[in-house]
Specification:
Blueprint (H helix, E strand, L loop, with lengths): L10 E3 L4 H12 L4 E4 L1 H9 L7 H4 L4 E5 L4 E5 L2 H8 L9 H8 L2 E5 L3 H12 L4 E5 L23 H12 L4 E5 L8 H5 L4 E4 L4 H14 L3 E5 L4 E5 L19 H4 L4 H12 L6 H8 L12 H19 L7 E4 L2 H6 L17 H20 L10 E5 L3 E6 L12 H20 L6 E3 L7 E6 L6 H5 L1 H6 L14 H13 L3 E5 L2 H20 L1 H9 L1 E2 L10 E2 L7 H10 L2 H9 L8 H8 L3 E7 L4 H20 L3 E5 L9 H7 L4 H15 L6 E9 L15 E3 L3
Parallel strand pairs: 2-4, 5-6, 5-8, 6-7, 8-9, 12-22, 17-18
Antiparallel strand pairs: 1-3, 3-4, 9-10, 10-11, 12-13, 13-15, 14-15, 16-19, 19-21, 20-21
InterPro entries: Nitroreductase-like (IPR000415), ThiF/MoeB/HesA (IPR045886), ThiF_NAD_FAD-bd (IPR000594), Ubiquitin-activating_enz (IPR035985)
Protein name: Rv1355c family protein
GO molecular function: oxidoreductase activity; tRNA threonylcarbamoyladenosine dehydratase; ubiquitin-like modifier activating enzyme activity
């Protein structure tokens, strides 16, 4: 640790203090020292802020800041006024209370090439109040393609260069340096008092040691890698048993990593970065290391992008906003390749000039209702319906040929039809077409529900229209955060409005119990040949398959290691071997992990098991889903194997080997969610605080018919 802070931090002096005044007098007598006084301009701008600062802030004692490496003294506002004015343009992307929370955070950064950009972004945004910077290296001319230093900094320690830049932006940020860098022995000392850890160093042994010690202390670790905007997040604060580097390098020996040369590091680096995801230019460059280039390349723009990514992630962690462990890529070239014209604003519709124009408007409204119905969710996105409409009304029929084994008695299909009906009601209300709705007792293939178009509307339904169009499945892991009383009340009301009852589970132990139940259900699904075949058959691989039905594998939100494992889980012979051993406990781990990361589990309970009950349950489920997403929650439906198996004989048919465990699991789930005697469950929803989904499921046009009357 460096104790000589004057060569990289500003020395602050209060002219009203006799000792400080004497130092300032000596500096003024030094002809090589420049004094800069722009205090009145700062105060004038401070007075213009909205809302007006408190009088004690306006009257705060100013300071003189001496920058020894510049031989310059600058007069500045006091700490509260300075921070208020400097960060005013943050609001309200970062609110004032949030800025106060960020001020109490200390961030440790190891490696000050990419790390310099990180420190710069954090300082500019006021995303921390303290920084610990570690790097043994000095700035060289070859570093100036990516490190925001200058030729005046050549030969200066990289951590010192960064600290000076920080001090010149905000002298009130507390900065501590480790100019000798870190080794495996000094990692623990560096992490003392650190809240968030940023790894941007090149030493693999330090990278591993840093993560192990951070995991032991429950500290999150972030890493930006300057190729295709890769950002890694390891939330050891939320997941104390999480494997380092997401488990991609296994359990490595730290001693064997020390002293590896650039070429020797490449195999491990490729495992960490996922060789299949590298840009072509980076991959080609790695082949040339020690041949035509000395080490892997980095571009200044990509380094600066990494700084922005990390600063955004730090804010989320500190402010308790959703940020799951994992990785993402913010690929600038990929986005630039996808440039497209923005959508142009639509003119408001004019009054139709004649009956033909009026009919066209009517047809547009009917098409909107049909489109809304087709946007409804269904198990495996099989879309088990036929939707037909003309100018008089809409009919939704069940298409039994699109059912699966888990859709016992077509109960899941009836839930999907109910969701489609709810969407149609919303769109019809928004278009002023709402009329009589009838649910029939027809057999599969016959109409299940009809809606006659009228001239009515329902404000509650209309208010859901935009949220209904935005509704989507989000399988991302979440950050457990309690629901407030208002959210709980609105979700419960959404279910009851459609004739169902919401069983909302928020207790952490109960959620963990549900996670274990659903994980075991998933294991049984993998190990039952028919269920496994249908589950894998639902998956769609972009570029190879049409994604208009089924589940786009990108929507599973799997990292590269999980996707690689999926190649094994798809194989029937592997499942057969696991089934023969009654093994595969890890098959449901992903489900359990996601459930445990949830803020709540919502089960939609219906009063019975008739066709009408399940259609009602589908309408209630869609209503709850739309409401939850409007409240900022991520929603994932979970269908345990036993969900629609009401009778023991039905469970026996589903999975002969596991019928008894399925019956037990069904009872356990009903008990923990608080379902009452005689009730059935339409669907189970996982509610969480998580980033948005990677993709949105598409729909198949040929399940919809528009009849022109």
């Amino acid at each position: 640790m460096n104790e000589s802070r004057g060569d990289y931090t500003a020395l602050l002096f209060d002219e009203g203090h006799s000792g400080d005044a004497a130092v300032l007098d000596r500096l003024r007598r030094d002809p090589a020292v420049v004094f800069v006084d722009r205090l009145e301009q700062q105060r004038d701008t401070l007075r213009t802020l909205v809302p007006a600062p408190d009088p004690d802030v306006l009257d705060e004692t100013p300071v003189w800041a001496y920058y020894s490496w510049r031989r310059t003294v600058v007069r500045l506002l006091g700490p509260a006024a300075f921070r208020l004015l400097r960060l005013d343009r943050n609001r309200n992307k970062v609110t004032a209370p949030e800025q106060e929370r960020l001020r109490d955070v200390t961030v440790g950064i190891v490696g000050l090439s990419v790390g310099h950009a990180v420190a710069l972004a954090l300082t500019l945004e006021g995303a921390c109040g303290g920084l610990r910077l570690a790097d043994f290296d000095t700035l060289e001319l070859s570093n100036l393609n990516r490190v925001p230093g200058t030729v005046l900094d050549l030969g200066v320690n990289k951590a010192v260069v960064a600290a000076r830049r920080i001090a010149e932006i905000d002298p009130y940020v507390t900065v501590t340096l480790w100019e000798d860098g870190l080794d495996v022995e000094s990692v623990a000392e560096f992490l003392d008092g650190t809240d968030v850890v940023i790894d941007e160093c090149d030493s693999l042994d330090v990278k591993v040691s840093l993560r192990r010690e951070a995991r032991r202390r429950g500290l999150p670790v972030l890493m930006a890698t300057s190729d295709r905007g890769l950002l890694d997040v390891e939330r050891f604060d939320l997941e104390p048993d999480r494997p380092i580097f997401h488990g991609v390098i296994g359990d490595v020996d730290v001693e064997s990593l020390a002293g590896l040369g650039a070429r020797d590091k490449i195999p491990l680096v490729l495992r960490i970065l996922d060789a299949t995801q590298l840009s072509a230019t980076m991959a080609a460059s790695l082949v040339e290391v020690d041949e035509t280039i000395s080490t892997w390349p980095q571009l200044g723009g990509e380094v600066l992008l990494g700084g922005a990514e990390v600063a955004a992630a730090v804010r989320r962690i500190v402010l308790g906003q959703p940020l799951a462990s994992g990785r993402c890529r913010m690929d600038l070239d990929g986005h630039l390749d996808a440039l497209a014209d923005p959508p142009r604003p639509h003119d408001l519709p004019k009054e139709p000039a004649d009956r033909e124009a009026a009919a066209a408007v009517s047809r547009d409204a009917v098409d909107a209702v049909v489109h809304a119905a087709a946007r409804a969710p269904s198990g495996g996105n099989v879309q088990p319906w036929t939707i037909a409409a003309d100018d008089d009304g809409l009919t939704i029929s069940l298409a039994p040929e699109h059912s699966t084994a888990m859709d016992v008695g077509y109960r899941g299909s009836y839930v999907a039809v109910g969701a489609a009906l709810h969407n149609a009601r919303i769109a019809a209300s928004a278009a002023g077409l709402l009329g009589t709705v009838t649910v029939h007792d027809g057999d599969p293939g016959l109409p299940v529900a009809t809606m006659t178009f009228g001239s009515g509307n329902d404000r509650e339904l209309t208010d859901r229209y935009e949220h209904m169009l935005d509704r989507t499945t989000n399988r991302r892991p979440g950050v457990p955060r309690p629901l407030d009383d208002r959210q709980v009340g609105l979700l419960s009301d959404a279910a009851s409005r459609e004739g169902a009852r919401l069983c909302l589970v928020t207790d952490r132990d109960d959620i963990a119990t549900i996670g274990a139940i659903l994980a075991e259900s998933d294991r049984i699904r993998f190990l039952t040949p028919t269920l496994h075949r249908e589950m894998i058959g639902e998956l769609r691989w972009p570029l190879l398959d049409s994604v208009e039905t089924g589940i786009d594998v990108r929507a599973l939100e799997l990292d590269s290691a999980e996707l690689s494992t999926l190649a094994l889980l798809r194989r029937p012979d592997v499942m057969e071997r696991l089934g023969a051993q009654d093994a595969g406990q890890a098959l449901g781990k992903s489900t359990a992990d996601r459930v445990v990361s949830s803020s709540a589990i919502a089960a939609v309970a219906i009063p019975g098991s008739t066709l009408r009950d399940y259609v009602r349950g589908g309408q209630a489920t869609e209503c709850v889903w739309i409401c939850a997403q409007a409240l900022g929650l991520a929603v994932q439906p979970i269908s345990p194997v036993f969900l629609y198996g009401v009778e023991s004989a039905e469970l026996e048919q589903l999975s002969p080997r596991y019928a008894a465990p399925l019956e037990r699991l069904r009872k356990e789930l009903f008990d923990v969610v608080g379902a009452k005697g005689g009730e059935a469950l339409a669907l189970v929803l996982r509610l969480s605080h998580a980033p948005g989904p990677s993709v949105r499921s598409e729909r198949l046009a040929d399940r919809v018919r528009r009849r022109i009357s």
